[in-house]
Q: What sequence folds into this?
């Protein structure tokens, strides 16, 4: 493989923090706690951890190894592995290209709420219709979206070492401390409602950690597994081109296997702690039924009500929470943008400056359309798979439920059966490192992962109920 001049992370720490920053995003904060609460608590956690160490490990290792071996971004890396499979790179490029504009819109929502709490107007966020009124406003969401996108573009524009790595080393430790502090505080909360019933954070923690097998059927267990596998795509940034791009910036001498292990541990820990942060607090102040909320409803509707119930400290708690959410959104959005920009640089031979500026213009146009999808461009529900009939929901479904499983399935076929697992194994052990899970990797990438991915893809069409 021809060596090439390429920006790189300064070392293992820079890569791990950047990759973990990509993994720790909005999906971990608003999706993971909801899935855990509705899927038997500790049962979901157990299934998730097992899958993360097997299924997730195989896909994550594959993508990072492809990136480092080829020294290419996702759009061009797959054709370097095998000319007949370059189409995977196209799909892997399209996924972040679709996701990034609407992710910036959601990032704008986070800034709106953070600024509301920063102005000590947290009670306004509790009012009925506050969230709906904001996202359906014609201009406000656009302004906040542009602000969030600008922050991402500045980081990516500065490059790998002075942009992504530098900011990850600052944001990720702060993010970890905030998540841990909020989680510990949530556990010690208690509240007595008008009927004299007292709910505690410890009880909420039990809902989260203690496996619930009541009424569990085979179909129900399959649903738990499908949800856990789907969450892994969000949590580990799999099949989005991100890990291929970041792998291409990893220095040859860095221990790849050890770095993968660290990403798995960091990401799983943050995801689990995110649940500890949200589930006890929502249970204490809003009851168990409120845990059914998912997505934007959990963060932007349910949690402000929780903060309001905390009294005077709720204002500060809400501010800390949305600062933490902003950091998580930023680190993930930056990685999504980098997958796009690096692909433009490698395929079109553009400079980072040109690729970033062109993507800024494209993002502005598409994100404005997404924002207006809640008012001017709102359409009645016409697709069975789209929940609410907004442009954002449609883009999310296409990227996450269709394209990402397709990218992962063909990646398994390419590495498992066409070029062979040896390609990845050789890259992992290129400096003589020990690959402790080598046989697990071979079994997963050749047999187990492809089957699970096909099940996920079929599940996205509602085949399993």
A:
């Amino acid at each position: 493989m021809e060596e090439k001049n390429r920006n790189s992370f300064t070392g293992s720490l820079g890569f791990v923090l950047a990759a973990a920053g990509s993994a720790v995003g909005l999906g971990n904060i608003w999706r993971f706690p909801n899935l855990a609460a509705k899927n038997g608590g500790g049962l979901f956690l157990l299934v998730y951890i097992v899958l993360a160490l097997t299924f997730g490990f195989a896909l994550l290792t594959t993508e990072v190894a492809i990136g480092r071996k080829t020294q290419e971004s996702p759009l061009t890396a797959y054709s370097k592995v095998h000319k007949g499979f370059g189409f995977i790179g196209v799909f892997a490029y399209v996924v972040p290209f679709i996701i990034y504009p609407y992710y910036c819109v959601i990032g704008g929502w986070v800034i709106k709420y953070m600024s509301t709490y920063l102005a000590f107007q947290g009670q306004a966020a509790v009012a009925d219709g506050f969230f709906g009124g904001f996202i359906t406003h014609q201009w406000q969401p656009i302004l906040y979206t542009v602000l969030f996108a600008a922050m991402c573009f500045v980081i990516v524009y500065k490059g790998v070492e002075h942009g992504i790595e530098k900011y990850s080393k600052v944001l990720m430790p702060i993010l970890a401390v905030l998540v841990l502090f909020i989680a510990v505080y949530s556990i010690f909360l208690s509240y007595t409602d008008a009927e004299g019933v007292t709910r505690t954070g410890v009880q909420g923690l039990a809902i989260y950690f203690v496996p619930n097998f009541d009424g569990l059927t085979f179909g129900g267990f399959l649903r738990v597994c499908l949800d856990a596998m789907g969450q892994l795509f969000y949590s580990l940034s799999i099949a989005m081109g991100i890990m291929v791009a970041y792998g291409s910036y990893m220095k040859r001498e860095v221990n790849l296997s050890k770095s993968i292990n660290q990403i798995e541990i960091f990401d799983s820990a943050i995801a689990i702690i995110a649940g500890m942060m949200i589930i006890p607090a929502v249970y204490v102040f809003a009851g168990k039924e409120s845990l059914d909320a998912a997505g934007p409803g959990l963060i932007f509707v349910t949690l402000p009500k929780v903060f309001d119930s905390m009294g005077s400290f709720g204002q500060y708690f809400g501010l800390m929470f949305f600062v933490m959410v902003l950091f998580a959104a930023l680190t993930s959005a930056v990685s999504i943008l980098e997958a796009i920009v690096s692909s433009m640089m490698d395929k079109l031979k553009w400079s980072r400056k040109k690729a970033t500026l062109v993507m800024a213009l494209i993002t502005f146009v598409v994100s404005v359309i997404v924002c207006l999808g809640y008012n001017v461009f709102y359409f009645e529900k016409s697709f069975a798979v789209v929940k609410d009939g907004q442009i954002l929901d449609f883009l999310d479904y296409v990227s996450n439920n269709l394209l990402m499983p397709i990218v992962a399935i063909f990646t398994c076929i390419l590495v498992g059966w066409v070029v062979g697992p040896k390609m990845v194994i050789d890259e992992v052990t290129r400096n003589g490192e020990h690959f402790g899970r080598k046989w697990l990797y071979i079994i997963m990438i050749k047999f187990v992962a492809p089957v699970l991915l096909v099940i996920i893809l079929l599940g996205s069409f509602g085949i399993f109920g």
